[in-house]
Amino acid sequence: MQARTDAVHAAMDDIRQIEADLGVTREGVQAIRDRLVELSSHRDLFPLEDFPKPGPDEKTTSFMYRLAQDGDDRFALYAQSSRGQVETPVHNHTTWAVVVGFDGQEHNRFFERTDEGVNQIDDHMVQAGTGVAMLPDDLHSIHIDGPALNFHCYGLALERLDEREYYNPKEDNWKIFSSISGIREARDLQSC
User: How far apart are the C-alpha atoms of 78 and 102, rounded to whole Å?
Assistant: First the structure.
């Protein structure tokens, strides 16, 4: 646990410095993604049994585990453990966001706003050794078919992202995405 805590703290220190040096820019979020890919290469620090996915009787298909979060709720890092069958609507984050693969696959589709709603412009399969980096207004959706564990890092904690928008195709409009709750603690709080 201490080795994981030290590695996560070092990565988060680097991420804070990357944002300070490069700002919230495409170059900056890509550098953050690359740093998280490096963290994820230390596979022995993140055994899958430390991040159990929901069982078949659970109402949810994935759990978020908090690995790091600054006292002012900035620079938060999570591990998302999923059993599969995860689909999100097209949404933004209102802060920068990075997703890096560890185990399994997470299909990310990218969109642009149009007068008719949204139009898909790209996609990327996130898996071990890869990731995606998004600016606050970038739009994406997540699709996970099977078991997966991925890292999600944000410029602001998930509980504070209460102005994210998602596109509702049935109603052909944008709505506010509820902030995420029920996050499981995976930090060594004595080392924080």
Answer: 12
With 80 as the cut, is the pLDDT of residue 192 above it? no
C-alpha span between 22 and 10 (Å, rounded): 18
pLDDT of residue 188: 73
- Which residues, including other chains, have CB under 8 Å from residue 130's CB and lie 6 or more apart? 37, 100, 101, 124
Are 77 and 8 a contacting pair, CB within 8 Å? yes
What tokens does 55 get?
Answer: 């069982």
Domain 2-185, architecture per CATH: Sandwich (2.60)
Instruction: Determine the length of the chain.
Output: 192
CA distance 52 to 96: 27
User: With contact defined as beta carbons under 8 Å apart, do 104 and 82 qualify?
Assistant: yes
Stretch 67-85: mean pLDDT: 96
- Pairing between strand 139-144 and 106-114? antiparallel
Sign of CA dihedral 148, 154, 156, 160: negative
Query: Which tens digit of pLDDT belongs to each residue from 90-113?
Result: 999 999 999 999 999 999 999 999
In which order are the strands placed within the sheet that holds 97-103? Answer: 131-134, 97-103, 148-156, 74-82, 62-68, 184-185
**pLDDT tens, 3-49?**
999 999 999 999 999 999 999 999 999 999 999 999 999 999 999 99
